[in-house]
């Protein structure tokens, strides 16, 4: 009979979970206790290597973990109980899947003998989360737990990153078994994401780039996910080729907004120059982006005259929406490195002077123009003021979803990757506040600002309490127009100005609300008071709700109307009632 | 382009549909079939036929054969989406290889007497279907073949007293010495 009592790898399932977190370098997790995870919470209580942040709602734990992950490049970890704890995680898991964020969620489950029994706080967690995770596991045997946990971290962080979930029944948490540190054999042999790009394809790509007359680089979140080397190489490629670069919402910061080749964001609310460059280009290099429907506009009129090169680690992103000429599957950092090497060895800098002159003409249209006012704060102006006040500081920006998000993307200049946390694919209102909590936990000394809308922020407002508890001085900068602005904008443009349920008739007093939570509140109405108040907000070392009252009917332009192509953008100076009505003729027909 | 008011670009696609047979080698573990089927229902792909069984019990490998229809772009998506699932080893488009054999097995119950009964037996013989159960008023035939052959046999049995059919769905394998 072997004596296992002194074997340090013999431990309970609950202890294994904490041990695995430590082995994967996790220092902070976000969670909410409940019946089915109490053994894990008991282990957390008895150690100090992993700090647990108690949120106020499991959705907050998920978004906080996402903010943590996106601002650090490390996986975010959330811990929730069974049943409602797990179902409340569905939104952040889906959000992370859409935006390729590495997230490890550990959920408690009812004891194995009760599974399928409609037990208290039971739900089919792996069934519910199957379509919203990269992979998930239900662990029925404590001796499988170490392997599954290690595989979970590996799957979440490699290839195209994404959320994973490990469902652990309570009896498995109590049971004793054998732990082992991470090892290669923990991972499915069937999982082997491709990293290195095909050499022939890379040569084809370089040959297209070298002979381009009207090139454009279109980069996305994949560059940021790939890591700092990919960002460095992207910048070098722009430098070496002299090509213009635009980026998706997810890709902001990979190339600095102050860089001379920067065109601004592209897509539905992108700049005129970015969209026109995409439309008229002859060679398009798409790096780590996926031709999403907010980017392409009308697909049959998308960049009709160009040869398209697409670098993506996920083969299913290739030819999904847009047929490309040279697909290259692999890690974009790796492939950018290869492209640069071949380009520098064999190609000379293409002459794109005439192309830049054309771009300069588009730029001169000044598509982000808005009319300033002395009486009322324009939301665009508020973002610009915030940007100026935080320029050069160590700042992280999160957002909610809607008009404020688009204005933030248009008017806040990002110089570095990992500084911009926004819900792109899923468009989750309520993302920004808990994400800011996660970012601030990862970067306690940095300035973390959630650029919010008055409607979105109320979806996860309770996480103010988390921020106060852990002394996280997040700044919630609310562009308060008393509307669900983007919903209202669409109703105005497409539904005959019938503003069905997009006005918030009962707005809380955000200053009092901040104080009730134990934070600090500001309210600003006048443009003249804005800069001073922002400075004051920055100097406060406590959580802040900043109620910035802005023009209530301002709309977000430029804009590609539905069913239109990149070269049919509606510019702000054209957006009078008549032009708008014409651009949205399809919508008017239904009025 | 006159489209209804929508935040999405609504576009009708008119590419012709194709039918493809896919062989998918997966780790046989709990939930793997649910993952594959969930992918099809979640992304709106069609399943015409689905056959699954463990094929290498030592290695815990199962082979799933799926017959699906879609535009060429959708078929390509389906293959990539399947291939990126964690427990999926390989996806082979048997239709593209043009070197695959497809077979289905069906059990066909026919009830009748007199001339109908004789005719059913005669046709079964012509189709090389075997009688695997018989009573004085019924037969159960076992027939294997490609989908068309089985459909044809069933159609012929219909006026002769077809009661019910149980089919396995398509299983496919490549010709020649190589495995998938």
TrEMBL record, chain B:
Pathway: Amino-acid biosynthesis; L-valine biosynthesis; L-valine from pyruvate: step 1/4; Amino-acid biosynthesis; L-isoleucine biosynthesis; L-isoleucine from 2-oxobutanoate: step 1/4. Signal peptide: none annotated. SUPFAM superfamilies: ACT-like. Its EC number is 2.2.1.6. GO terms for biological process: isoleucine biosynthetic process; L-valine biosynthetic process. It catalyses: 2 pyruvate + H(+) = (2S)-2-acetolactate + CO2. Gene3D superfamilies: 3.30.70.260, ACT-like. Chain A, domain 2. Keywords: Amino-acid biosynthesis, Branched-chain amino acid biosynthesis, Transferase. One of its GO terms (molecular function) is acetolactate synthase regulator activity. Pfam families: ACT_AHAS_ss, ALS_ss_C. It comes from the Bacteria. It is an enzyme of class 2 (transferase). Residues 21-96 form the ACT domain. Belongs to the acetolactate synthase small subunit family. Dimer of large and small chains. NCBIfam families: acolac_sm, PRK11895.1. This is Acetolactate synthase small subunit. The lineage of its organism: Bacteria, Pseudomonadati, Pseudomonadota, Alphaproteobacteria, Hyphomicrobiales.
């Amino acid at each position: 009979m072997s004596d296992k009592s002194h074997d340090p790898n013999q431990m309970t399932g609950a202890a294994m979970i904490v041990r695995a977190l430590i082995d994967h370098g996790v220092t902070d997790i976000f969670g909410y206790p409940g019946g089915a995870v109490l053994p894990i919470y008991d282990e957390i209580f008895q150690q100090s290597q992993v700090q647990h942040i108690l949120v106020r709602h499991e959705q907050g734990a998920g978004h906080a973990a996402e903010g943590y992950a996106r601002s650090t490049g490390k996986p975010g970890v959330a811990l929730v109980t069974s049943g409602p704890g797990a179902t409340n995680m569905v939104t952040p898991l889906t959000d992370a899947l859409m935006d390729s964020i590495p997230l490890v969620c550990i959920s408690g489950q009812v004891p194995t003998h009760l599974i399928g029994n409609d037990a208290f706080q039971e739900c089919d967690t792996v069934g519910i989360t199957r379509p919203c995770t990269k992979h998930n596991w239900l662990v029925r045997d404590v001796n499988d737990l170490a392997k599954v946990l290690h595989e979970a971290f590996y799957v979440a962080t490699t290839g195209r990153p994404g959320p994973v979930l490990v469902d652990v029944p309570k009896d498995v948490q109590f049971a004793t078994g054998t732990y082992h540190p991470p090892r290669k054999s923990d991972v499915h042999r069937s999982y082997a994401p491709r990293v290195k790009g095909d050499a022939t394809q890379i040569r084809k790509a370089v040959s297209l780039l070298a002979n381009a007359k009207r090139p454009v680089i279109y980069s996305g979140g994949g560059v940021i996910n790939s890591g700092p080397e990919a960002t460095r190489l992207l910048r070098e490629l722009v430098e070496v080729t002299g090509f213009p670069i635009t980026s998706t919402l997810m890709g902001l910061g990979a190339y600095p907004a102050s860089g001379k080749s920067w065109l601004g964001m592209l897509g539905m609310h992108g700049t005129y120059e970015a969209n026109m460059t995409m439309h008229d280009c002859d060679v398009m290099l798409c790096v780590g982006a996926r031709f999403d429907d907010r980017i392409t506009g009308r697909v049959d009129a998308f960049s009709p005259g160009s040869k398209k090169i697409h670098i993506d680690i996920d083969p299913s992103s290739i030819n999904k929406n847009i047929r490309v000429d040279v697909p290259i599957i692999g890690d974009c950092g790796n492939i950018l490195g290869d492209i640069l090497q071949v380009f520098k060895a064999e190609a000379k800098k293409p002459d794109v002077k005439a192309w830049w002159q054309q771009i300069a003409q588009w730029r001169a249209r000044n598509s982000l123009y808005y009319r300033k006012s002395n009486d009322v704060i324009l939301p665009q102006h508020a973002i610009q003021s915030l940007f100026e006040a935080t320029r050069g500081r160590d700042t992280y920006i999160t957002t909610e979803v809607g008009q404020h998000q688009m204005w933030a993307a248009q008017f806040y200049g990002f110089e570095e990757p990992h500084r911009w946390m926004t819900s792109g694919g899923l468009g989750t209102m309520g993302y920004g506040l808990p994400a800011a909590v996660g970012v601030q936990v990862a970067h306690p000394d940095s300035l973390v600002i959630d650029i919010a809308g008055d409607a979105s922020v109320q979806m996860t407002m309770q996480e103010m309490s988390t921020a106060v508890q852990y002394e996280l001085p997040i700044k919630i900068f609310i562009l308060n127009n008393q509307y669900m602005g983007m919903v209202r904008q669409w109703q105005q443009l497409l539904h005959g100005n019938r503003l069905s349920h997009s006005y918030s008739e009962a707005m809380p007093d955000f200053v009092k609300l901040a104080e009730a939570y134990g934070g600090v509140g500001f309210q600003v109405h006048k443009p003249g008071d804005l800069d001073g108040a922002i400075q004051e907000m920055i100097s406060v070392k406590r959580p802040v709700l900043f109620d910035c009252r802005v023009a209530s009917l301002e709309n977000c332009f430029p804009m590609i109307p539905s069913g239109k192509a990149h070269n049919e953008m509606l510019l702000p100076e054209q957006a009078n009632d008549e032009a708008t009505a014409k651009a949205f003729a399809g919508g008017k027909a239904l009025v | 382009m006159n489209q209804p008011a929508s935040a999405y670009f609504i576009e009708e696609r008119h590419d012709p549909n194709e039918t493809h047979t896919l062989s998918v080698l997966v780790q046989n573990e709990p939930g793997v079939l649910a993952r594959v089927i969930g992918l099809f229902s979640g992304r709106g792909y069609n399943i015409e036929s689905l056959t699954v069984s463990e094929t290498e019990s030592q290695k815990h490998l199962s082979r799933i054969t799926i017959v699906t229809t879609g535009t060429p772009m959708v078929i390509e998506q389906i293959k990539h989406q399947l291939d990126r699932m964690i427990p999926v080893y390989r996806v082979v488009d048997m239709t593209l290889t043009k070197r695959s054999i497809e077979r289905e097995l069906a059990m066909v119950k026919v009830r009748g007497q007199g001339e109908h009964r004789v005719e059913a037996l005669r046709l079964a013989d012509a189709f090389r279907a075997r009688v695997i159960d018989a009573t004085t008023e019924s037969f159960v035939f076992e027939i294997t073949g490609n989908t068309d052959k089985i459909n044809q046999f069933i159609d012929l049995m219909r006026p002769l007293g077809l009661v019910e059919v149980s089919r396995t769905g398509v299983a496919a394998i490549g010709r020649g010495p190589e495995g998938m």
